[in-house]
Design goal:
By secondary structure, the chain is α/β, with parallel strands linked by helices. It is built from 11 helices and 8 strands. Bound molecules: SN-glycerol-3-phosphate.
């Protein structure tokens, strides 16, 4: 399973990249706005680290605009995946971009039928937002279960990128279901690493080591 950071903070990305547990990055207009920096400058810095998959979202809502922005973003660096929203225009643009060899991440997916359509137009990734479904009183992880089953029925090669992840249990459940990727905030990835018993155990080993005769 691949682990992505859902952030536009180069500092956060660099930290996890250096530890060696990061497989990719997803950004969206909200995350980019939070950084207060130029979008393309941020993208170039992330790509320069060597991160192999970096999702950058188009903001046009019409097909021509999506194609123009998508082709431009793709040309910035070979690691760029173009993020396109799940709308009729988004589906049409994805079909064209995919036929040109651009890897598209279809975003804002909230139903299994939408995920089926994303696969049919050749998206490289589909991004179901599970946290936002949970917020609405639905069980987001059930959507992942359905998409895993549908993609397996028809052997679609579109990878399931579990998005809007809010806590480590989302990552655990997504892994148990066989989702290909989970993208998460920095704080959630940190929690995957940490366990209080690891800290306590290490402190005790180091304390006991002091009693071992030297020399
Ligand atoms: O990047 C898309 C998605 O992960 C956003 O998550 O927390 O804003 O629902 P969230």
């Amino acid at each position: 399973m691949k682990l992505f950071l859902d952030t536009a903070s180069v500092k956060e990305i660099r930290t996890m990249w250096e530890i060696g547990i990061l497989d990719g990055v997803t950004t969206n207009p909200t995350l980019v706005a939070k950084e207060g920096r130029k979008f393309e400058e941020v993208l170039r810095e992330i790509c320069a680290l060597g991160v192999p998959s970096v999702s950058a979202e188009v903001v046009a809502t019409d097909v021509e605009g999506m194609l123009r922005e998508g082709r431009h973003l793709r040309g910035l660096h070979p690691s760029i995946y173009v993020k396109v929203p799940m709308t009729p225009a988004g589906l049409q643009a994805t079909k064209t971009l995919a036929s040109e060899g651009t890897r598209v991440n279809m975003t804002l997916v909230f139903s299994a039928n939408q995920a089926l359509l994303a696969a049919k137009v050749g998206a490289a990734y589909v991004s179901p937002f599970i946290g936002r479904l949970d917020d609405q009183g639905e069980v987001g992880m059930e959507l992942i279960r359905d998409i895993v089953a549908i993609y397996s029925n028809y052997r679609f090669s579109t990878e399931i990128l579990v998005a809007s992840v809010r806590h480590p249990v989302h990552v655990l459940e997504a892994a148990k279901l066989g989702a290909h990727i989970a993208t998460m905030p920095y704080a959630v990835m940190e929690k995957l690493v940490q366990h209080p018993l690891t800290d306590l155990g290490l402190a005790r080993f180091l304390k006991d080591w002091e009693k071992v005769p030297r020399g």
